[in-house]
Amino acid sequence: MKFSMVLGALGTLAATVSAVKVNPLPAPRKITWGSSGPIAVSELSFRTTEGNDHTRGVLIDAWQRAWGTITNLQWVPAATEAPIATYPPFPTGAGLTKRAAKSIQSVQLTVADPKVDLQHGVDESYTLDVTATAGSIKIHAHTIWGALHAFTTLQQIVISDGKGGLMVEQPVHIEDAPLYPYRGIMVDTGRNFITVPKILEQIDGMALSKLNVLHWHLDDAQSWPMHMKTYPQMTKDAFSPRETYTAADMRDVIAYARSRGVRVIPEVDMPGHSASGWQQVDPEIVACANSWWSNDVYEYHTSVEPNPGQLDIIYNKTYEVVRNVYNDLSDIFTDNWFHTGADELQPGCYNFSTHVTEWFLEDPSRTYNDLAQYWVDHAVPIFRDAGENRRIMMWEDIALSTEAAHDVPKDIVMQSWNNGLTNIQNLTARGYDVVVSSSDFLYLDCGRGGFLGNDPRYDVMSNPDASVNFNYGGNGGSWCAPYKTWQRIYDYDFTTNLTDTQAKHILGAEAPLWSEQVDDVTISSEFWPRAAALGELVWSGNRDSAGRKRTTELTQRILNFREYLVANGVMASALQPKYCLQHPHACDFYYNQTAIV
Ligand SMILES: *[C@@H]1O[C@H](CO)[C@@H](O)[C@H](O)[C@H]1NC(C)=O
Ligand SMILES: *[C@@H]1O[C@H](CO)[C@@H](O)[C@H](O)[C@H]1NC(C)=O
Ligand SMILES: *[C@@H]1O[C@H](CO)[C@@H](O)[C@H](O)[C@H]1NC(C)=O
Ligand SMILES: *[C@@H]1O[C@H](CO)[C@@H](O)[C@H](O)[C@H]1NC(C)=O
Ligand SMILES: *[C@@H]1O[C@H](CO)[C@@H](O)[C@H](O)[C@H]1NC(C)=O
């Protein structure tokens, strides 16, 4: 009480309260803030009813991380919604000479069903209450995974009191749960190697923004970084012996992610994008690896980018090797889901396979769609053999592209990346569960130009109008230009015009970052804070209770969160001049705060 009086005397109480309110990100589904004024937070003791050793360990580690972050950072919100005149929001110097008589001293957690495993669809909901009268913070969750989210919320709302102590606005009542069970980002370690510590850094950002799926695109045609039990020779096609992942490395990533509520879904891209690694087992299982990728005539191209190589769909031994590789990785990756690729099959590649060309000659009515169907018929049973809980995920191309198979089982999850709403509409109408990764909205690598050398299209002296001469199209010159800003990501209404039945097939969304031009140096600044905009979109949506886009409201929240990520060691990009953080909405394009509908 004394506390709020002192603040009131400083005349900054209102500013303090609204300063607190930019936190947390993602915005909870339901949050009510009181105006009784902040209360001091002492060294919090943590209590939980949970008894099982393993889950208790996960909870205690998570609590210690959250509390460690609170006390180490002594966070002062870096962007506020407070009026310019009252900034900075925190009393400094004279003022809070004494701590409040009353303070919050403990966190009490109850978990209804602590044994539930971290798998797709797990209940991630929680409630969190802070009241001065109770003297404690009460958290209730159905599973420990919901409790972890409660901690990342709490750590963002307990902030510095400006005097070396901590405080939290109160009363606070939060009821929170995600809109979608699948909220992901995709790391590509095939085009450039990403070290384990940098992967863990992405997981830190994910946990803070409540993203829960790390889709790990392990290999690609260019390299094979994973050590395999059955075929140790595959890592001869890693970029170097050091640029590899041992089984222990992969297990470390999975364990680190799990303890932060993040699932790791592995992807081995097959049968396209396959040369490195596979060719070390038997060159004959890879078609066209030694072809020139484009032949300088695009009609004869063998791959969409160098280097070429696709698994030979007709050669029997392919399936033996696929089975062994898949089983080795299934032993390491604990998630029920496994992504088996299936994007961008290039017909031109198979002109280099005698197995495939003879198969076509045997029956001239055969098409590339039949060939894709052959893959589905022979590979999917192998993928299913991993057990009854196995769920297979593929890129949409296998069901929706010129070379699509005729009949792809409906229980395979489709990751949609082309044609925005059109493909989402198509796949959900056909009954597929869909993860939205529309490249026009969610591809984080776009807009930095293409990576190919010897490219006359970049010679602006001879091609003065790049937008005309550039076959990639669009400002920023890459096939998926322009660069996707956080606002474009956040504003994506990917369920537009879907029926209720179709909308139920949307499992969530994922932002991929293809790594042709990304490695350890820039991966974090490419993902963050843009992935956090996706985090909020799929956690609590992009509209307020009146149905209005809250993009502008997100501004101060994401500006603050970017600073918070950096403070937590996640090297996120700056979004605006610091002036804008300190002068809320001074940097908006329109003064009209409802310009975005
Ligand atoms: C490939 O496998 C199939 C089915 O197992 C078998 O019928 C066929 O004879 C095999 N082909 C060759 C060339 O070994
Ligand atoms: C593949 O070979 C066939 C038969 O020789 C030819 O008609 C076709 O143009 C070739 N396709 C490509 C993409 O090279
Ligand atoms: C999906 O797209 C394919 C290919 O364009 C088309 O043949 C099919 O009719 C579409 N299905 C639906 C339900 O929209
Ligand atoms: C949604 O449907 C309406 C009515 O058919 C149509 O006018 C609108 O263009 C559609 N929106 C999108 C984004 O496709
Ligand atoms: C603000 O923008 C909204 C949406 O474009 C518009 O309806 C409204 O008239 C604008 N308000 C003012 C004061 O211009």
UniProtKB/TrEMBL annotation:
One of its GO terms (biological process) is glycosaminoglycan metabolic process. It comes from the Eukaryota. Residues 24-157 form the Beta-hexosaminidase eukaryotic type N-terminal domain. Gene3D superfamilies: Chitobiase/beta-hexosaminidase domain 2-like, Glycosidases. GO terms for cellular component: membrane. Residues 1-19 form the signal peptide. It catalyses: Hydrolysis of terminal non-reducing N-acetyl-D-hexosamine residues in N-acetyl-beta-D-hexosaminides. Keywords: Glycoprotein, Glycosidase, Hydrolase, Signal. It is an enzyme of class 3 (hydrolase). The active site is at 344 (proton donor). Residues 180-541 form the Glycoside hydrolase family 20 catalytic domain. GO terms for molecular function: beta-N-acetylglucosaminidase activity. Belongs to the glycosyl hydrolase 20 family. This is Beta-hexosaminidase.
